[in-house]
Amino acid sequence: MEDSMNFTDDVEIVKEFLVESNDHLDDVESKILELEKNPEDVDLINSIFRPIHSMKGSAGFLGLQDIGKVSHELETLLDEARKMKIKITPEIVEILYEGVDILKKLRESVAKRVDNKGALVDVIDFQTLLSKISTILARDLDTAQHENSRMNLLKAKHIGEILVETGDINKDQLELALQEQEHGKRLGEILVEKGITTPAKVDNALKLQSVVGKASSETVKVDIQKLDNLVNLVGELVIANALINEGLGNITNGANKNLSHLNKIVKDIQDQVMCMRMVPLRSTFQKMSRLVRDVSAKVGKKVRLEISGEDTELDKTVIEEIGDPLVHIIRNSIDHGIEPQNERIPKGKPAEGLVRLNAFHRGGNIVIEIEDDGKGLCKEKILEKATEKGLIEKNASLSDQQIYNLIFAAGFSTAEKVTDVSGRGVGMDVVKKNVERLRGKVEISTVEGKGTKISIKLPLTLAIIDGMIVQVGTEKYIVPMLSIEESIRPKKEDVSTVQQRGEIINVRGNLLPVVRLHNLYNVQPKKINPWEALILVVEGEGQRCGILVDDLLGQQQIVIKSLGEQFQNVRGISGSAILGDGHVGLILDVGGIMSMALN
User: What CATH number has the domain bearing residue 238?
Assistant: First the structure.
């Protein structure tokens, strides 16, 4: 049936509904996963009921009849479950999952019509779901009692009233217990002592009571464009403040004190505005729980997901981009990494595979780790496939890390056959590209037979970076701190020239190529000899090198500015920033510089 909403009217209200419903469905999906493990948890049932109830009300107001119908039936089912009239069974959990999937499809259909007002409505069959819900309700409920008692439970304020309305005790028993309560005992204890009810029923009533009393936190929804504009304005404020500091030079103590106070206020404003864009990883991680459940069932393996660090916060833009890489890595962990039960048990491993998803702060960045207890990466198999595809020469000498990094090559796959889960060579190259586009890094550590750990290192935000300002001649460049390992002034005997390879430097026994920035960008340097200048040892895209610079001018938080469409493809440059002296400094892309200079 076609929804009756006229999309030429109140488009903004519909868009707001689409945003809210998306949040509601993500929340509901994660709660169903928890409910599957704790089917008697009334708190969980209530936390699923509330978003569905909200969706039903909003859909009814907007004339979205199909969403309203599905939401109404799911709400009815959940209402009976939270009043303990029916038990949450695996059958009901599957119906809830099916309901969420259908609501997502219906929501997408509405979104298409909003974006393209002439779009045809997708035909989505949800009658089978409604029939399943009707069957369960007819089988397990006295329908008349079900209709009369609907919504009464939430009106209860006292535990005694809740127990009466759920039918666990009658009013006379409640009055008797209330008279004895004057002696200081709790009502629940008295009812259990007299054998009127059980501890389990009292516990459930207490859970219901606590849910009713919970107050929701107040939030205001802000258009993302307005927030981006505010971030840009604060960036301009930070730059203006730096210009004032640089321009004033030596000033009186009183003025210096006022300027320091202004600096503190600007820094606080900057921190608060950046925090407004920060959101926890929880919803992204919870989506992975559903993914693990579905993929493991599809490939016939029993896999458990352990999540930690879900309260770690990241910039909203980064979180939106990191979802796809996580999906690819976890699918690979389950399909390639975790062995079938008949292989795990002889190895002394538990039949159930384990995937760990963890996030934490490290050195001003966020690290997301995906670890499995599977068979690990087989170097011989990777080398064989890479040679077969012409990615490396036969008998090439590669370090372990270089071998493992071959799995990120486009089109690379070690799967024996193509399935709908993996095997097409699409996935890990996408992971690497997406993460590097976010100015992050991907690292692999593995032990054959024990498991694999993939670490994704990401900046907290895409708007500001910690950078080292370096000078080459009269020019100033910014090198991201994430890429810098150390800075050194080499001895003359540590620098040498290798035929066809250029200059190399010996850093504690490791030979690194030297990149001269002044040659790349045609700048006249102040210092030509490496032993008179400074070398920045940097790492990017799995390679290390030394960048020759005249001097280091200090570390600074840099507000990133785009170079615009005209210069967006300049190799070796990822952006620009306005420095304290008012000049523009170019932000170096370490990986791009290495590919320019060394290849």
Answer: 1.10.287.560
DSSP of 50-72: HHHHHHHHHHHHHT-HHHHHHHH
In a domain, 217, yes or no: no
Residue 67 is assigned to a structural domain of this protein = yes
Instruction: Burial-class residue 109 by CB neighbours within 10 Å (0-12, 13-18, 19+).
Output: buried
In a domain, residue 188? The reply is: no
What CATH code is carried by the domain that includes residue 100? Answer: 1.20.120.160
To the nearest 10 degrees (0 to 180), the angle between helices 224-248 and 253-276 is 160
Find tokens 């759920």 and name the residue: 166
> Looking at the structure, do residues 408 and 266 belong to the same domain, yes or no?
no
- Token pair for residue 120? 């045809």
For residues 47 and 125, membership in a common domain is answered with: yes
In eight-state DSSP terms, residue 483 is G
Which residue carries 């037979």 as its tokens? Answer: 449
Residue 98 to residue 396: CA distance in whole angstroms: 51
Tell me the residue ranges of DSSP E strands in 175-301: 278-280
Whether the Cβ atoms of residue 205 and residue 166 lie closer than 8 Å to each other: yes
Question: How many structural domains does the chain have?
Answer: 4
Q: Does 306 lie in the same domain as 420?
A: yes
Residue 421's φ and ψ, nearest 5 degrees, are: -95, -45
CA distance 132 to 262: 64
Judge if 21 and 61 occupy the same domain. yes
Q: Do 40 and 115 sit in the same domain of this protein?
A: yes
Q: End of a domain among 255, 277, 299? A: 277
**DSSP calls for 305-347:** EEEE-TT-EEEHHHHHHHHHHHHHHHHHIIIIISPPHHHHGGG
The reply to whether 56 and 131 lie within a common domain is: yes
Alpha carbon distance 105, 405 (integer Å): 38
Are both 242 and 271 inside the same structural domain? Answer: yes
The domain of 517 spans 464-598
Catalytic residues: 53, 75, 332
pLDDT along the chain (599 residues), means of 10: 51 79 83 82 84 82 82 84 80 85 85 69 73 74 44 49 72 73 66 77 66 50 76 79 71 72 82 79 83 85 88 83 86 87 86 90 80 85 79 73 77 58 58 80 85 86 79 90 86 82 83 87 88 87 82 82 71 80 82 74
Burial class of residue 70, CB neighbours in 10 A (0-12, 13-18, 19+): buried
Residue 414 to residue 411: CA distance in whole angstroms: 10
Burial of 163 (0-12, 13-18, 19+ CB in 10 A): buried
Cα–Cα distance measured from residue 263 to residue 557, given in angstroms and rounded to the nearest whole number: 13
383 near 343, Cβ under 8 Å? no
Q: Are residues 83 and 142 in the same domain?
A: yes
Q: Which token pair is 220?
A: 């205001």
